[in-house]
Amino acid sequence: MNKMRKLNIAIIGLGNIGSYLFKYLNENKKILTEKNNCLPVVKFVSAKNKNKKRKIKITKNQWLNNYLDATKHKDVDLIIELIGGAEGPAKKLVFNALKNRKNVVTANKALIAKYGDRLAKIAEKNKVNLEFEASVCGGVPIIRSLKEGLIANKISKIYGIFNGTSNYILSSMDKEDKNFDEVLTKAQKLGFAETNPAADLNGDDVSSKLKILSSLCFNSFLNNNIYVEGIKQIDKTDIDNANKLGYKIKLLGFAELLDNKIYQRVHPTLIKTNSYVASIDGVLNAVIVDGRPVGQSIIQGEGAGAAATTSALISDISSIMRGNIKFPFSLSDKERKKLKFQNLDKRLFSAYLRFEVEDKPGILSNITNIFSRNRVSIKRLVQNPHKNKKSSSIIIITHKSEDRFLQKTLKEVDRKNYVKHKSKLIRIDE
């Protein structure tokens, strides 16, 4: 009888996700062994605070006082990095682990987005795995889909809702009579938003995920040339205006290949109310892939949380248990491409613009003249006077124009002394 193969695992980081994973691996050892013909053994664990009360039973022999000892220990086959952050201990752990020929599984999108190319090269050289399914959209298996399920397809575009916090805020503002700050406070109380939610709100979280997805879709190296805009400027008035015009507002990430050039962008977007993405509310994520020959593929699910992240981590662990050795970004370092990444200046968009101005004769004419001078054609215009405030809200939907002309128009109007508040521009996806 053949001796059962074992995979000795070190879990570094025991927050909500690390603790949940530890418990899951111990409680589901039998079924994982049966499915993968390999026994997963949590050999070691380590975390910043040894004395923190945790709802898991850690033996004395499992605890590592120095987390880096896992990278050198002969009884460790796989290191699971759940520290977080692109720098500091997480960076040191993963680089050392791969250099010492240890397989690595991580949920760290910031680390992969910044150092993924360098880490992939080390993993390839040492014939070990670097897996990061959990780094993008938690329970949505998009990375494995791109690496395996959609491998036969030439992908032209990937986009969607990649951040549950921002989606919860925008959809709650839509459904409830509450402003941005009220909804954010509620999200923090429910655990949907961090105490410091800056990365979620300013688009950085989506940006990191998009860099990873773009690299996988287009077989390219990671690239920082990405337009990023968050949702903090969106208020209830914009949400209500969008509804009246037949749109919903979502924070979307886009990576698309046009004329052999890649455009990467993250920004609030108006989408038709009857579109699929418009129906994705709460903390759900959704990823849409356009490719040939498959056409359009859609994957949705929980984007974050201990259970969803553990599901993604187990997928990567199971792959390693089966003995698979794969390139982290599907292709070898020599086969990946340095593609040209473009800014948005000459990209065509329709847009929603909102101006809060003094309610005086001649102002509307002045604004439309600015649009005309900047070659921006108006598709629809709505003027809503605020009688009590002696001001007026002017909402304009444009025909498709180059982004640089839209931006120039906005800035030019904002310089006028009749403008009472900073104006808004939200791109439309049609």
What's the pLDDT, averaged over the residues? 92
Total count of helical runs of at least 4 residues: 13
Q: Per CATH, what is the topology of the largest domain?
A: Dihydrodipicolinate Reductase, domain 2
Shape: elongated
- CATH class annotation of the largest domain: Alpha Beta
Please report which band the strand proportion falls in: under 5%, 5-15%, 15-25%, 25-35%, 35-45% or over 45%: 25-35%
Number of domains: 3
Helical coverage, percent range: 25-40%
The count of strands amounts to 17
CATH architecture of the largest domain: 2-Layer Sandwich
Assembly type of the chains comes to: single chain
CATH superfamily of the largest domain: Dihydrodipicolinate Reductase, domain 2
Poorly predicted runs of 5 or more residues: none
Could you state the order of secondary-structure elements as H and E? EHHEEHEHEHEHHHHEHEEEEHEEHEEEHE
Structural class: alpha/beta
Distance between the termini: 61 Å
User: Over all CA atoms, what is the radius of gyration?
Assistant: 24 Å
Biggest beta sheet attributes: 12 strands, mixed
List the helices and strands and how they pair.
Blueprint (H helix, E strand, L loop, with lengths): L5 E7 L3 H12 L1 H8 L2 E8 L31 E4 L6 H12 L3 E4 L2 H18 L3 E2 L10 H8 L4 E8 L2 H12 L4 H11 L7 H4 L2 H15 L8 E2 L7 H9 L2 E12 L2 E12 L11 E9 L2 E8 L3 H16 L18 E3 L5 E11 L4 H11 L4 E9 L4 E8 L2 E2 H12 L9 E6 L1
